[in-house]
Amino acid sequence: MRKSLLSLAVLSALSVPTLSYAEDAAPAAAEPTSPHTFAYNIGLYSQYIFRGLTQTNEDPAIQGGVDYTHSSGFYAGAWASNISWLKDVGAYDSSSLELDLYGGYANTIGETGVGYNVGLLQYIYPGDEVAGQKKAETTEFYGSLSYKWLAAKLSVIASDGAFGFKNADGSWYAELNGNFPILETGITANLHLGRQEFKGQGTSDLDYTDWKIGATKSWSNGVNVGAYYTDTTTKDSAYTILNKNIGDSAFTVFVQKTF
């Protein structure tokens, strides 16, 4: 499972003009800016938290991804992280990877400054599930609206299963996110509130609320360092793995490089 709000970096391509010292030389034509942009990221996290739940039993995670963006607003990407929860819960004999594939369209509404983002996300979990267990592969549709430092997003399960739970299509996750820059320090305060609702018989105990508070320090060379505190209202009866509620309060630190 992937942590709540997907965001894509849109980079500007800078063209250096050709200089000529000949008085009668014709001015060099500027190279056209490519409509295609690729961005990459890699990071080391003290643990992988997704929607308030630890996916690595509080062990470190290496995460990275690649994003393609077209100037029209269409985008696609892939992201991966190590995990342990499927094996820890006994659903898979072996499973240590989450791979997310996604694509969509993002733009702004006229001159309002309101941005929107709609897309499709496929969660893939390679490995061998235990006999009788449903595969954890999950498909979500999502849509979000944003204005300045605030964003609201809704993700809805389109597959018949949700992270291994059967007949869970229609389950949803709603979230509010705020990323507030602190003066000119390069530090951004990160706030999050989310609500997970599962559909299907016998899934009511799986519903919960989660929240996060943290801060990220960014540098112009693409290095980001941050920390955040998370907690949830998960029930022990539904979310205890290896004698620990995976939604208990947690503190996570990370260092990331984007380029």
Describe this structure in words.
- The protein has a 12-stranded antiparallel β-barrel with strand order 1-4-5-7-8-10-11-12-13-14-15-18. Strands 2-3 form a two-stranded antiparallel ribbon. A two-stranded antiparallel ribbon has the order 6-9.
- The protein contains 2 helices and 18 strands.
- By secondary structure, it is mostly beta strands.
- Residues 2-25 have low confidence and may be disordered.
Element layout with pairings:
Layout: E1 36-45, E2 49-50, E3 53-54, E4 61-70, E5 74-82, H1 85-88, E6 92-94, E7 97-108, E8 114-124, E9 128-129, E10 138-147, E11 150-157, E12 172-182, E13 187-197, E14 208-218, E15 223-232, H2 236-239, E16 240-241, E17 244-245, E18 250-258
Antiparallel strand pairs: 1-4, 1-18, 2-3, 4-5, 5-7, 6-9, 7-8, 8-10, 10-11, 11-12, 12-13, 13-14, 14-15, 15-18, 16-17
